[in-house]
Amino acid sequence: MDLLEYKGKQVLKRYEVPLSAGAQAATVDEALAAAEAIGYPVVVKAQVKIGGRGKAGGIKLAADADAVREHAGAILGMDIRGHAVHELWIEQATDIASEYYAAVVFDRSAKAPLVMLSTQGGMDIEQVAAERPDALATLHVDPLVGFQPFHGRRLAFEAGVDADVVRPVGAMLATLYAAFEGEDATLVEINPLVITPDRRVIALDAKVTLDDNAAFRHPHHAELDDASGADPQERMAAERGLTYVKLDGDIGIFGNGAGLVMSTLDVVAHAGGAPANFLDAGGGAKAEAIAASVEVILSNPNVRAVLFNVFGGITRCDEVARGIVDAYALLQPTVPFVVRLDGTNDVQARQLLADADLPNVHAEATMDGAAARVVELARAGSGSGSAGSSA
Ligand code: GDP
Ligand code: MN
Prior knowledge:
α9 (287-298) packs across α10 (317-331). The chain folds into three domains: 21-92, ATP-grasp fold, A domain (Dna Ligase, domain 1, 2-Layer Sandwich); 98-224, D-amino Acid Aminotransferase, Chain A, domain 1, CATH 3.30.470.20; 230-380, Rossmann fold, CATH 3.40.50.261. The protein contains twelve helices and 18 strands. By secondary structure, the chain is an alpha+beta fold. Bound molecules: guanosine-5'-diphosphate and manganese (II) ion. Residues 43, 51-54, 59, 93-94, 96, 99, 122, 191-192, 204-205 line the site of guanosine-5'-diphosphate.
C-alpha cells in the first residue's frame, strides 16, 4: 500500500523523523484555518500518490491568507497525470540551504534493506544513479544487526554531505530505518531531505510503501489507506477477499488459479478481445464466493460479456456451475456469459447448466472456442452506432 505524503509523515513522526508542522485540508476553508494555526508562510501541497507534483503546479508557497485561498482553490480538483487532488497538506514553509535524497528500500535480490543517500536531492534518483553513481552512497543492512550509528555516519561521509551535518544526517537515516523496520515498510523515501540555513535536517517530502502482507501485524495500517483514491471495483473485491485487478477492456474474466487466468487474458487478447479484469477465484471456490466474484465483475460498467474459464482440480466444476446459476438468479445479468468448464465433475456441471437453461449463457468445450465466442458476443452487444473494437 502506497501512502499519501501526509499519511507517510504521520507514520514517520512516531519514529521521531524531523518534520515541519502541518495539517491536512480538504477544502479552501480548512486550508485557511490550517495556515492560520501554523503561521505564514506555508506551503500548499497536493496529496496524490505520484511524484513530480512540484513541476505539475501542485506545490505552492503562500505568504498570506489570500495566497492560500488562491492556491488551495487552484490545486483542489486539479488533475496531476491522471490523479485527481481531493486533499491538501498545509505545511510550515522551510528555508532551504541544500536538498539531499535519502531512502530505505527492500532489496529483494540481496534479501536485505538497502539504505541510500545522495546530495543530489530534488532530482530523479534513477537519473542520479545512471549519470553520477559516485554521488549515491548505498549500504545493505543486516536485519539481525540493524542500523548502527556508524552506518549513518559512513553513508553521510561517503555521499559527501556538508561536514557539519554528518551526524544529524546520520541520525535522520537511523530514524528512517527504524520506521521502515517498525512498520514493515518496503520503501521509505525522502526527496528532498533538506538542510536549512540554520543547519537543521528536515524530511520535506515522504513516500512510504507498506507491505500489505504484514498488515495483520499493524491493525492501524487500515486507517492509513485512503479508499477515496482506490478504484471502486478493486475496493469491492478487496472487501470480499478476492484477487481482482481492473483492466481497461470490456470482457469480464473469471478463472481459478493465477496461471490459468493469465493465459485466459492472453487467449482473449489473441482472439481480438480486451479483458476488463483479472480475477482469480482460487482453488476450491464455493458457490457463494463465485456469486461474490460475478457481482464484482458485473459492477464494472464497461463489461459487455463475461468469460468463465475453469479447470477443475481442487475446484469442483459442479460447484462453479451452481455458483453461476445462483449468481444469475441474484444479479439478473444483462450481458452474455460464456462458460468453459473442464476437469473434476465437469459432466455434472454441464448438466446443471443445461438443466438451468439460463438465457444468454453459452457453454463452450475449449478455451479457444470460448474466447472466440465471448469476443463475438461482446462485439454484438456493443450496440449500433459504436465503432466497435478494432482487433
Ligand atoms: P514532489 O514534486 O511531488 O516530489 O514534491 P516535494 O514535496 O518534493 O516538493 C517539490 C519541491 O518543492 C521540493 O523539491 C522543494 O524544492 C519545493 N518545496 C517543497 N516544500 C518547500 C518548502 O517548505 N520551502 C521551500 N522553499 N521549497 C519547498
Ligand atoms: Mn519529492
